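[09:14] KT: can someone run the structure on this one? pasting the chain below
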Amino acid sequence: MADKAPGSSPFWAPDVHADRRPFLLARGEIVAALRAWFAANDFLEVETGALQVSPGNEAHLHAFATSLVAPDGTSSTLYLRTSPEFACKKLLAAGERRIVEFAKVFRNRERGALHAPEFTLVEWYRACERYEVLMTDCAAILAQAATAAGAREFSFRGRKADAFAEPDRLSVAEAFARHAGVDLLSTLGGGEPDRERFASAASAAGIRIAADDSWSDIFSRVLVERIEPELGIGRATILYEYPAEQAALARPSAKDPRVAERFELYVCGVELANGFGELTDATEQRRRLEQEMAEKQRRYGERYPLDEDFLAALAQMPEACGIALGLDRLVMLATGASRIDQVLWAPMK
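[09:31] RB: done, structure tokens below
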């Protein structure tokens, strides 16, 4: 099937649609299989609003803003959500225990083979369960998607992974040591992360470091350049125990407070899902979100409001774990599509 980049012909051109249609039919089969799996495992499918008072408070996520005009003509700013997370956690506070949403979400400044400004997250939560169970969920969902698409393996741009093999589990610290020769945990002593030590180690590993790079900048650069291309090859990889500095919405690990209960799922070098043992300390969550917005202000000259209703609900929320998985990317991997536009029914021009 042809890989036609955006701009060559409209998606509704009959020849373009004919090329894309097998991907889209497979998408429908995958969605149906996932819905059936969640229903069989006692998840309630929910629908939360796309318009929110806060789109999310991660420094590097950019939202679309709009105005809500009241009958009297006054207006207030709302945002298209970057994730349904805040609303889903409010439902956990309300008493729901296992929920899933197939959520349309929106992120600005993101466009490419793996990114679209509007896409679908499959986001699910388990109350009163440990976050390791989400790793088991991921393995099951990969198998469900492959079976629905009639695939034995996932593929993306020449990389392949067995769809039914048990995912490899690798800690972030192990990955940095194995693929970059960097002792990550040594830069995470008490107090603030050691930026200079990290910069020195990364430079010794051949990573270009700018003078104004923060500890987080260096982490991201090593991850993207050295770690991610090695993950999910042959079988899926679960990369777990992210540094607490990189997990604003996750609780600290009981084993080592330098790291958090956060993991990401990779297949064929593609990040597919992001899971957490959820932070339920409202005071600490406020501090972290304010820190994220201060960083956003420093970098991009803007910030988003905090959702005070979310913080109030968080104080009532039970211990829980949650994860967001990119449905469009999952369909790409199961069908061999090379661009996200190929698996969207009506991609933006």
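[09:33] KT: thanks! The chain has a mean pLDDT of 95.
[09:34] RB: yep, looked fine to me
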